Amino acid sequence: MIEEAPSILNTWIQDWNLLSESWRVGLVVFALVAGTAVVAYIASFIVGAVERRFQKTDNLWDDALLHAARKPVVAFVWLQGVYWAAEVAHHYSEAEIFSVNQTILQIGFVFLLVWTLLRLIKQGEQILASPLKMKKPMDYTTVNAVSKLSRTVVIITAVLIAMQSLGYSISGVLAFGGVGGIAVGFAAKDLLANFFGGFIIHLDRPFKVGDWVRSPDRNIEGVVEHIGWRLTTIRTFDKRPLYVPNAAFTTIAVENPSRMHNRRISETIGIRYVDVSGMAEVVADIRSMLANHEDIDQDQTLIVNFLAFNDSSLDIMVYTFTKTIEWVRFHEVKQDVLLRISEIIESHGAEVAFPTRTLHLPDGVRVAANGKQAKDRGDSDSSNEAVDEDVEQGRAPVSGSEHSSETRGDSNQADGD
Asked: Which positions of the chain have pLDDT values less than 50?
């Protein structure tokens, strides 16, 4: 029926003799275009109403299908209506542009089908990776990889069908692609290395979008934002984007701290040598505190022991794991643990040691308490040295007592006189 529509219209134009042929053709073309607009609006309204009705159901895939097909359905109505108008015009016109109507219609159908499939793939990707729509959502990285592969297959298939519609031989294209692929492989080996590197990342899944990764071999550390076929985007902790070619991940070691089960607290705490008598009690209380701490994982290794005699302290090793792996929460737990250890040390009359050094001086050597006292003592020593020099030369008495004796002698001599 659809194929016979242009011929029916042509017959009606020929039988209608009220106006000239050009006017009749123009009116029919205008009516077809106007009718197409009306039908397209009605189709859009119907699909939208059905889509809203299906949104109330528990099935998510009918919503995805209708949402994916809504715009292509409207585009199909326009494609078919414009094709009929062009066929009517072509019957009464010798313009070469109307000779490709059938080819444009076929390619248009392929395009609309590809558009619908790509939209459906996108809707499926959103459903499968959404925790709001799925009870057990799939990993976003895996869904994204499958989505990209599906789009690639759809696009390549559509291109081959379109080329076949245009009159090209697919077998010749495939043969050319086999020979040309070798040349392209040599010319773009780095690009292909990145492509296969991205494929390996999607296959092995050492990390996914949102993971914190770092490499001990390269200066790479941050949160994965996007995994493409050529490169991976990582947002560093200073908020700068870092673009890493996928081929690099096939030759370097990659750590994924996001997949850790616990975070470790490893500290060495020293107390003074004078507190050695209370070392056993301090160690036992710290171990008991950690064993009863609500944020410490008791299923992991817990070590609290007297470790070593250090230069200025007696060292205690504290080694344990927290339940949380969140960075901020971990530091809150670590702060609480260290404060509790400080309280335990203080409760035993001990103190946390700090670097000190004892200096032994020989007998008779004095050390000035501060600069002012040293200066005063220096001035006093200089005065004493001057007095000693006067005594040696006979210009001054040796001491205050001798000066008093000499004065009393002069007084007695005066009395005798």
From this structure: 1, 19, 374, 380-417
Q: Are 317 and 344 in contact (CB under 8 A)?
A: no
Measure Cα distances from 221 to 206, 227, 262, 284 in Å.
Answer: 14, 15, 19, 39
The pLDDT value recorded for residue 307 is: 94
pLDDT digits (tens, 9 = 90+) for 145-175: 788 888 888 888 888 888 877 777 766 666 6
Residues contacting residue 257 through CB under 8 Å, at least 6 positions apart: 212, 213, 214
| Cβ 121 vs Cβ 147: under 8 Å | yes
State the DSSP H helix or E strand holding residue 343, giving kind and residue range, or none if neither: helix 327-347
Beta pairing, strands 314-322 & 220-227: unpaired
Of how many residues is the chain composed? 417
User: Which conformational region is residue 365 in: left (phi greater than 0), alpha (psi within -120 to 50 degrees), or beta?
Assistant: beta
Q: Is 352 exposed, middle or buried (0-12, 13-18, 19+ CB in 10 A)?
A: middle
